[in-house]
């Protein structure tokens, strides 16, 4: 409902601004005398509206008060010195210039509300999304949800659970060597490499896309995890020789850390990731 009101106010503000500008053009075209003066005042009105658009309504209305004061002094001067009467155009511009400013402010404020709400919705969607759009892999949000379930199964049935954290070596430097359009493709290729090295009942997650970091939840112990690690590194070596070196012009290397779940030492899924990442320091 709030979004609809903001959208309606934005539309009405923009429509009102166009209508006022049309009225001003018709008025200037129909005025026989003072054509140049009316054009100058129209430009001033438009300038004040632009100031309001890029700053705040307070600044815009303050400048409008200054305009009314100066224009009033100018009109009084003409009336006293030249004996001219106050014409319709004077009252027209005294009313129209503030109206143009207010109407553009309504449009601007409503548009900014819509933009702010759109950003909030994007952030909310990103926080709730559990699948990466480029690789179709579950992300860190999904990991936190699944890890609680997996650790519960591990504790209840006494099944060993190990988390592997896989990270591309020197990723920050590699990002500078690989064209931007190939970065997502490189992440996808490494994801497929990791996916093909685990069983169907194990789970793969893209924990950090910017830092090229994956997590693999395996129902196995340390010895089983070492087998998976060797399998991943062997496949990576084969791909470096046959595909990666020609495709990306660099050889990709991986650092892999593993930690087995221990309910007494690991408090939550985030702690699980932190402890697994510490093991990356020993894989050089």
From TrEMBL:
> Which is a Pfam family this sequence falls into?
GGDEF
Q: Which InterPro entries does the record associate with it?
A: GGDEF_dom (IPR000160), Nucleotide_cyclase (IPR029787), Rev_trsase/Diguanyl_cyclase (IPR043128)
| Regions that span the bilayer | 12-29, 35-54, 86-107
Which range is the signal sequence, renumbered to this chain?
Answer: none
Keywords, alphabetical: Membrane, Transmembrane, Transmembrane helix
Q: Which residues form the GGDEF domain?
A: 129-280
Stated name of the protein: GGDEF domain-containing protein, diguanylate cyclase (C-di-GMP synthetase) or its enzymatically inactive variants
């Amino acid at each position: 409902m709030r979004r609809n009101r903001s959208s309606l106010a934005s539309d009405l503000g923009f429509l009102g601004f166009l209508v006022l500008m049309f009225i001003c053009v018709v008025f200037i075209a129909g005025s026989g005398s003072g054509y140049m003066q009316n054009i100058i005042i129209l430009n001033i009105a438009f300038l004040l509206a632009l100031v309001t658009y890029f700053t705040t309504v307070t600044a815009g209305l303050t400048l409008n008060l200054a305009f009314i004061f100066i224009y009033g002094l100018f009109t009084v001067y003409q009336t006293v010195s030249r004996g001219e009467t106050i014409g319709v155009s004077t009252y027209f511009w005294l009313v129209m210039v503030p109206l143009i400013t207010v109407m553009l402010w309504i449009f601007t404020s409503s548009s900014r509300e819509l933009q702010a709400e759109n950003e909030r919705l994007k952030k909310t969607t990103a926080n709730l999304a559990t699948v990466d759009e480029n690789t179709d892999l579950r992300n860190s949000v999904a990991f936190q949800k699944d890890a609680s379930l997996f650790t519960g199964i591990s504790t209840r049935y006494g099944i060993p659970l190990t988390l592997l954290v896989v990270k591309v070596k020197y990723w920050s430097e590699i990002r500078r060597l690989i064209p931007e359009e190939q970065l997502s493709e490189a992440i996808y290729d490494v994801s497929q490499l990791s996916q093909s090295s685990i069983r169907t009942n194990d789970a793969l997650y893209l924990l950090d896309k910017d830092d090229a970091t994956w997590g693999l939840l395996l129902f196995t112990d340390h010895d089983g995890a070492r087998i998976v690690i060797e399998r991943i590194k062997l496949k990576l070596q084969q791909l470096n020789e046959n595909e990666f070196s020609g495709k990306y012009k660099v050889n990709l290397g991986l650092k892999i850390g593993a930690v087995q779940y221990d309910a007494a030492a690991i408090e939550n899924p985030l702690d699980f990731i932190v402890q697994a990442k510490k093991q990356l320091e020993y894989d050089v």
